[in-house]
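for the writeup, i need someone to sanity check this before i put it in the appendix. the sequnce is what the collaborator sent (i think, or maybe the updated version? ugh). structure was predicted straight from it, no edits. if anything looks off just tell me and ill rerun, i have time this weekend
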Amino acid sequence: MIFGGFDAIVEEGAGHGGYVDGWVVPVLPGKSEAYRAMAAKAAPIFREHGATRVVEAIADDVPKGKVTDFYRAVKAEDGETVVFSFIEWPDKATRDAGWQKVMADERMKPDGDMPFAGPRMFWGGFEPIINSAAKVPA
């Protein structure tokens, strides 16, 4: 098991969803603010294209494990930190259509160098099995 505490640096939306995208990414040394700015720019675009909630959170209380941990998962290098993020969507169909629109959206083009190491990022789509915010079980 990998666990840790993260401080939300971007949170857009308050809805919950029936489908969740999640990712973990290593942020380059000295680039935490650049990452936050990039995430703050992207969050409303995801919401515009169907996401109900976007959360980006930076490592705050993330222990080093004996076998594995968030840092090892992304092969973090000296001085790098880790961001854990998720996007909630109403359902998988909205997510699939939303991602196509987000990737085609000109506003998503980077303004310069990326503040994270993309090749060491990992992500996935998840169907909730418990959602304590929902009025009905997931």
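The beta strands are 5-12, 19-27, 53-61, 81-89, 122-126. Residues 32-48 form the longest helix (17 residues).
thx in advance!!
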